[in-house]
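Hi everyone, sorry if this is the wrong subforum. Our group has a chain we'd like a structural model of before ordering constructs, and none of us has done structure prediction before. Sequence below.
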Amino acid sequence: MINVHLFETYGESMKIAPLFNKESFDNENIILESYRGQKVWLAFFRYASCPLCNLRINEMIRRYKELEAEGLKIITVFQSPRTSVEKYVAKQELPFPLICDPQQELYQLYGVKGSYGGLMSLGVVQNLAKASAKGFFPGVPDGPLNTIPADFLINELGEIVTSFHGKDIGDHIPFEEVFKFLKA
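Answer:
Right subforum, don't worry. Here is the predicted structure as tokens:
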């Protein structure tokens, strides 16, 4: 069953992306307003030791040059503190900014929620197998266990063109939708 609220394209009634100013894992000041004039993918993840999140980060890293060549800027957000991100996610040598948000201020600002129903599904089990094969294993969760990933595609005017809220803990916006956004 498809929930129409999971993936929403705003069309003519686009919403301006809520602005923020946060420090990245690499101590860079990330000011969303400074990205005006560029297309942005704002991706929210769960906790740093989540194998499904690390699998997705790995996929984003592998496709980064292709996405960057199309003019896309990527900003990622984790609900974990710096120490956990350093131990798990940062081992992958990130080519894009990562914001540690253990207080989940950005999650609240963008309406990223949790769901205990999204903890297990056939897709989660399949993705856990893929993550394990890549060497990503579960660790101690930082913050809520039930956070569901969300992705926001923001155009050059700072408008949210696409809002994708996953249906389970391993569900992210398809890369095809990101490339469609880039071609528009």
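For your construct planning: The first strand starts at residue 7 and ends at 9. Strands lie at 7-9, 15-16, 21-23, 29-31, 39-44, 72-78, 98-100, 150-154, 159-165.
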